[in-house]
Design brief:
The complex is a heterodimer. Chain A is an all-alpha fold. Chain A has a domain of about 40 residues. Chain A is built from 31 helices and two strands. Chain A has a two-stranded antiparallel sheet with strand order 1-2. In chain A, helix 3 packs antiparallel against helix 4 and helix 17 crosses helix 18. Chain B has two domains: about 250 residues, Rossmann fold, CATH 3.40.50.12140; about 60 residues, no CATH class. The N and C termini of chain B lie close together (about 5 Å). In chain B, about 30% of the residues lie in helices and about 15% in strands. By secondary structure, chain B is α/β, with parallel strands linked by helices. In chain B, strands 2-1-3-4-7-6-5 form a seven-stranded mixed sheet, sandwiched between helices. Classes of the chains: A mainly alpha, B alpha/beta. At the A-B interface, helix 2, helix 3, helix 4, helix 6 and helix 8 of A face helix 2, helix 6, strand 12 and helix 7 of B.
């Protein structure tokens, strides 16, 4: 071990000399590191205990070298515990912003698991860093507010004397006055991230922003601050001057802000009718997406939408690239238009986006009760996208009570299997003569689901000769066909079950036979 | 790519033969490219549902490209629609397993040979991250599962790192987002100093990232990256979702000595670097990495930064990179 230490110290000495020289070529770093690694591979340096590491860091925090103090503050972030936290809290008062930044980032690391800071003194100290001269420190501290709130707002008890008697009374959680002032100043910070962080969290710190300050935030140059302010505006909607600021945002250059405004004033308009004027103003917006969104929002509040605006909605949604973003929001708001929305859905049936077409078909058929008239929904079967066809099929399935011969023929001869499956299901509501002439076409379909569905329908209809047909299908190569045939036969005790029994006895090794035997036994029949 | 379109044309002919008449179907955006996404078991594992639609929307807005904003979801690689669309996107973290049938592997091989492009998001994932889907780590090799999967598809090929000067990093955007792009005032701090330095010099120099790829017939046909989809999503007002934080390597004067002996009782993992050497990552089980010993013998500590500015910057980078990859796939 001693020998190792000597070698190690020698190499370290040579290394430090080379580093001080700043002449990498005199002692190539790669050579050195490989030699160091070789030494370590024999006997790597022992790691110190937690106490020693923390003591060492504590000493370094007192160093006159900023780099050393910074390094110690960074390292302490890796040791979650009260001792390390106390050292870091002390480092928050360091003269160097580098140390303060490192200490705060390390403290954040301590609470990375999402747990709040309950210790009031600790929370207040960290919170006070929102007044730090360094912007990075202020950003970190203000981003940490949600986790500081439980510690900052702790309620408690106090002992007072009332008429000479000792009385205990509760003290509500409240932000310390000096910290509240700091928080207010933070809303006017030169850095937009700091303003944003405080704005988003001020309600949990339970202080009211003065109307002038909130008004100024509604005029902020930073879009993210504006969006955050619009999120909070409900609390200040009746404060003097706020309505005017909101009204002014109706012509803001950023479309995201105007879209957010439309959503905000829709909410405000329910409680404060004067804000509906802003929505009406937004219906004149040059951007279709804003104007149409505002119009639909007004409809939600009970106002009628003009035919011209319906045309504008159709135009906007038709030109949108899909059911996404604002177009999606608008689309799902259309129900507020009631019957007026029918024209819009109908126009969107040929939209380029499959999702939009699928949803448009869905709403179109619901409004028109389209399942009552196959001529309304059959055109959707020609759509190239499976999503559209399946949406429509799942809507009309089980609801169609009549279908004409030519309509059924169109479905039977359809290229898509799910449509032919639907045709098989519709045999249930078709004219028996049509069924008689067409079922065979479906029974020899290339798709097994179509064939098995047809078998099930024929069993349900007790169609002429169905027993024979099902008994023969028990020998089919496709298990789903065998299963459909078995289920059909099991449903008829008089003729179907004897036919199944005969099959099971004749073909005991057939795949379906074991299941059939089990089903027959459940019915009390010994195969 | 031309070959692909010719093959595609032929692939469509049987459909016409069988009378697949689409007379009432609208034209899908008159030539808009539809991105396919492989989703194995419905929606149960979808982690970033807004990601791909947001990115497609951004590409349509910014690049005037013509992408269908609805991704086409396929559940199997034997889906016949695979051969109708030139780009397949797979978020490897969303796959329940990497078990693909021989038919699927054959189809994917054929797809790539015919000109199809595969983007394996989260196809790079350092082993120490385990099943934690909320983290990424820019290792410089594909994850083990991807390596063995593609070993079945192309036994004769292997993933290779893309050099920092590869044109994929400059297809549309070049470099890192500046204040103007981030919509920050000129005098505003983009990122904390240490973060910005690390990002510009090591994490994403010149807007590049750790990508590995496979070439098929002299064409980059597949790219794997650490998870990028987490950076693509936007809400309806244009704000980025969800928040993203940064892992940064920081040093201090004495770390080479301090970290070597500092108290530690966890595990170490080796991760491949850009130069092919290995970093030794120190971490406590279930926690984020503490520090790293680099092959040069240098020790650095991992620090974690979060906040609006960090998140916005990360989103901007990932979205720009995502755009570059998809547009590269389309144009090459």
């Amino acid at each position: 071990m001693k020998l190792f230490m000597i070698i190690y110290l020698f190499i370290s000495l040579v290394f430090s000399l080379a580093a001080e020289d700043g002449n990498g070529s005199s002692f190539p770093e790669s050579n050195l590191s490989s030699q160091l690694q070789a030494v370590e591979a024999i006997d790597p340096p022992k790691r110190s205990s937690m106490d020693v590491t923390l003591d060492d860091a504590a000493q370094k925090l007192k160093s006159s070298h900023v780099q050393e103090r910074t390094g110690a503050a960074k390292l302490l972030g890796k040791y979650v515990g009260s001792q390390a936290a106390l050292l870091l809290i002390g480092a928050l008062d360091d003269a160097s912003e580098l140390v303060r930044r490192a200490a705060l980032v390390s403290l954040v690391e301590h609470f990375n698991n999402g747990s709040p800071v309950f210790e009031q003194a600790l929370a207040e100290k960290i919170f006070s860093m929102i007044g730090d001269p360094d912007v990075e420190v202020r950003r970190e501290a203000s981003a940490l507010i949600p986790r500081l709130v439980p510690g900052l707002m702790r309620s408690g008890m106090e002992k007072i004397q009332v008429n000479g008697r000792t009385v205990f009374r509760s003290v509500p959680g409240r932000l310390r006055e000096d910290l509240r002032q700091l928080a207010e100043e933070c809303l006017r910070d030169t850095d937009s991230i700091v303003r944003q962080n405080m704005l988003k969290n001020h309600y949990s710190l339970r202080f009211q922003i003065p109307p002038q300050t909130f008004g100024a935030l509604l005029e902020d140059n930073d879009v993210a601050v504006l969006l955050a302010a619009l999120d909070q505006v409900r609390m200040y909607a009746t404060q003097p001057g706020i309505y005017q600021k909101i009204e002014a945002l109706a012509v803001h250059r950023d479309m995201g802000v105007r879209a957010k405004l439309a959503k905000t004033v829709l909410s405000l308009g329910r409680s404060f009718p004067e804000y509906r004027k802003v929505l009406r103003q937004l219906t004149n917006d040059q951007a279709d997406e804003i104007a149409t969104l505002a119009a639909v929002d007004l409809a939600r509040l009970g106002e009628r939408v003009s035919p011209e605006m319906i045309d504008r909605i159709i135009e906007y949604l038709s030109l949108s690239r899909g059911l996404y973003g604002k177009a999606e929001t608008l689309f799902y708001s259309l129900s507020a238009l009631g019957r007026d929305s029918a024209r819009i859905y109908e126009a969107l049936l040929v939209h380029p986006s499959a999702s939009m077409r699928a949803k448009a078909w869905h709403h179109h058929l619901i409004l028109s009760e389209g399942w009552k008239s196959p001529t309304l929904w059959i055109p959707a079967m020609e759509d190239r996208d499976l999503q559209v066809r399946e949406t429509v099929l799942s809507l009309v399935r089980g609801r169609v009570d009549k279908i004409e011969k030519n309509e059924l023929l169109r479905l039977i001869g359809h290229p898509f299997a799910e449509v032919r499956t639907m045709a098989a299901e519709l045999l249930l509501v078709a004219d028996p003569k049509v069924v008689q002439n067409q079922f065979f076409e479906l029974l020899i379909d290339e798709d097994s689901l179509v064939r098995s569905t047809t078998l099930r329908v024929l069993a349900n209809l007790r169609f002429e000769n169905w027993i024979h047909l099902h008994a023969r299908s028990l020998n089919d190569e496709d298990y789903t066909i065998q299963r459909a045939a078995m289920d059909g036969l099991l449903g008829d005790r008089a003729e179907g079950v004897p036919a199944l029994l005969e099959f099971v006895r004749k073909y005991p090794a057939e795949r379906i036979s074991s299941l059939a035997r089990s089903e027959l036994q459940k019915m009390g029949i010994k195969p | 790519m031309k070959i692909y379109w010719i093959i595609l044309l032929f692939a469509l002919i049987p459909g016409l033969e069988y009378g697949y008449c689409l007379y009432a179907a609208p034209d899908m955006g008159a030539g808009a490219v539809r991105i396919m996404q492989l989703r194995r078991d419905g929606v149960s594992r979808i982690r970033y549902p807004d990601a791909l639609p947001s990115l497609l929307d951004m590409m349509n807005e910014r690049a005037n490209a013509r992408f269908d904003p609805d991704p086409l979801f396929i559940e199997s690689l034997t889906d016949e629609r695979l051969f109708e669309n030139p780009i397949l996107y797979i978020n490897c973290d969303e796959l329940p397993s990497f078990d693909f049938s021989t038919e699927e592997n054959d189809a994917l091989r054929r797809y790539m040979e015919l000109g199809g492009f595969v983007y394996l998001d989260a196809g790079i994932k350092a082993s120490f991250l385990g099943t934690d889907l909320g983290h990424s780590y820019a290792a410089w090799e594909e994850r083990d599962e991807v390596r063995s999967w593609f070993g079945e598809i192309f036994p004769e090929k292997a993933f290779a790192p893309l050099p920092r000067n590869h044109e994929i990093f400059r297809t549309f955007y070049k470099g890192l987002p500046d204040n103007e792009y981030l919509r920050l005032e000129e005098d505003q701090k983009r990122l904390p100093d240490t973060v910005l330095t690390f990002v510009e010099q090591e994490k994403w120099p010149q807007g590049t990232y750790s990508l590995v790829g496979i070439r098929v017939k002299d064409r980059l046909a597949c790219v794997a990256s650490p998870i990028c989809a987490m950076g693509w999503g936007r809400d309806e007002f244009g704000a980025w979702i969800p928040p993203i934080s940064f892992r940064i390597r920081e040093s201090a004067e004495d770390f080479d000595e301090t970290l070597k002996v500092a108290s530690f009782s966890g595990q170490t993992f080796e991760v491949t670097r850009e130069d092919g050497l290995k970093d030794e990552i120190y971490l406590l089980p279930g926690q984020r990495p503490l520090w790293v010993k680099e092959p040069t013998g240098r020790w650095r500590i991992f620090k974690y930064y979060s906040g609006e500015e960090i998140s916005n910057y990360a989103h901007s980078f990932y979205a720009r990179l995502g755009m570059n990859v998809f547009l590269y796939a389309l144009l090459n």
